Amino acid sequence: MIKRLSRLIFCALLVCALSFSAIGCGNTGSGDDNPPDPPVEKLTDHVSLKILPDTDKLVHSPNPRVVENSYRYGPSMILDEEGTLHMWTSSPGRFKTQWDWIRYRSSDNGGTSWSDETIALTPTPGTDDAWSVCDPGAVKIGEYYYIGYTSCYNVYGRDNNVFVARSKNVYGPFNEKWNGQGWSTSEAQPVVYFDEAATDTPKSDAFGAGEPTFVVKDGVIYMYYTWDNNAAGEEGDNSVRVATAPADDENWPAKLEYRGVAFERGDGEAEDSGDVAYLEAYDRFIFVNVSRRYMDNCRIAVRQSADGITWDEEVSYTSTNFTKYAHNGGLSKRSDGHIRKGDPVYFAYAHAENSNATVVNWATRICKVTFKVSEKVETDRGITRLQKVPSQATTTGSAPQSVFVSDPYVRIRMGKPAHQLRIKLLDNNMETRVLSASEIANIEFYGYDTSIVDISESGLVTAKKTGMTHVYMKYGGDDRLSDNFIVYVGEGAFTEAIGSNAAGLDALTDSDVDTVYNTQANGEKWMGLQTADGKNAPLKGVHLYSQIEAGFYPATFKVQVRSAGGEWTDTEKWSYHFLSEPSTSTAIVPVTIVFDETISANGVRIVGAGATETTAIGLSGMEAFADEDEISVTSVRAMRSEIRLHIGDTSQLKLYVRYRFQFQYEIYFREQGVTYGNYDTSVISVGENGLVTAKAKGETTITADWNGTQIPVRVIVD
Question: Taking the CB of residue 196, how many other CB atoms lie within 10 A of it?
Fold first, then answer.
């Protein structure tokens, strides 16, 4: 009893210290910026979890209508005062342009049945989370629900960062996102940056930072996230880290303070992401996750902490009444991350049919669990395993899940006919259809710059001046059926149209949204180019946009131009601009090709160059330009404008380059044209690829240079 009381007094004092110190650090990186906390008295007993028998229920089963990519993983759950379970999961997004969306559903009977799904959170095109949003972690602070999530800058899904979005509605949409200084509907920036370099090539193999989960206690937000810099086949840091911030500050992401590594994951156990909760009955924080993910002997692991900062080394395990091949689980908890005494507690997780993790048709299940404490760490042997998941779909019906624009990047030119938006409805059968003109009339378009474009009730977009604007829309006045996209208006330098070899240049007609540059029955499609007086156009290069709903780029391809006589010839001398080389795995990347010299041509096309890839390939758009200045950069910024380190620490300096057509790339390698200089070599060293190492106490500024654009980064070594 005396030990218990002394620990409670110590924890109360520590929380007061946390509340005082969690200010002013700004967005956190690797976080070796603060001295360690004093040691905390270790818990003298151990918490363990038990899955109650006969409580397993199916939440999601792979839909037989979907051949691949039918999944709901990484569930985050809130139990409200009425006993309703609210669940957010990672799920398939807009084909190829956005890998994952976060979906929402609820259950008022403990997971026996669920509401129709809706889309809670999607990427914001043209910003730092444009590729994907996944791994949700939900919490309520004040009047807002917040979702922490994972996203990345590169097309390989690596070097991830942690982001946060918010909404006053539990179902969303979570359109307000942290932008580095406040909350915005048109810009997203990380709250935790992954600032390590795991490989020596621009294609990193490191997962990075992500998979956040939250607890609010005594006015302090505890945010936990995974940190994984493991390169392929190499050992590295694979940990769960913690940062804190004051809960009474609306802009709390700016006050996040890195508190250290909570614990290391690994030891050959293939540990997964997890969920943190505060267990009020036993006065401790717990972390629950799947160990041996995707394996037939997978199990649930439970860790504990007295103060949420320092975690015990001992881990308890359970596998009785658990399925095989499980991964990415989450606990139900109150909106502040607490589990109150007497609360029903649920554990939900995804699982595969076998150990092949590359086949992403995953089921999602939920079961009821209980906790207890004992003097010894408990581990059961998993005598009882659940049977194979039923094959029927669990989310069915014609109720709409989402209404969205096929391509979130709409490109039009001045002087061209109005562009008809192609808008689709996705229902709970996971089937899509194109909305009719009368249905589009039920959509409200708002929040866009009316000086750049005009959008009619029927979805016709008319260019008014060059520029870029975000557009927001919702269907039938329902916030849950909403989307956002970008419209970019370029100069009308050419008359551009889709033609074919059979028809010839005179038969060219203005392209519309349904036309793609691929092999059709009437011949190979291509882009025709003419100047205003009908002559061949001067051609310096092309922007390529992959076909959203068709195949990927071939492994190799050729760029061909068409002469006045109709002959097609290969262009011999051209280069990729900015390392955006297309491949079978990067179909969603816009690619810019620059010719060494200006070419006179009246047509351009892309043709596969491999032995079996000689036909023209699918593209949704191809912008030709006469001047290399059209490849304009709209902004260049550093990942962090200030880096704080201790002697011996390292941090990867990175630049983010955003282009006129609103795609952003992460760069820091010398071969990408980045150099570093003008810093005090007695304080730090900087590798040729931007890895900063602290050598001595002091302050200095690094000048990162990319193609003549210089970005200063302040470094402070304590």
Answer: 21
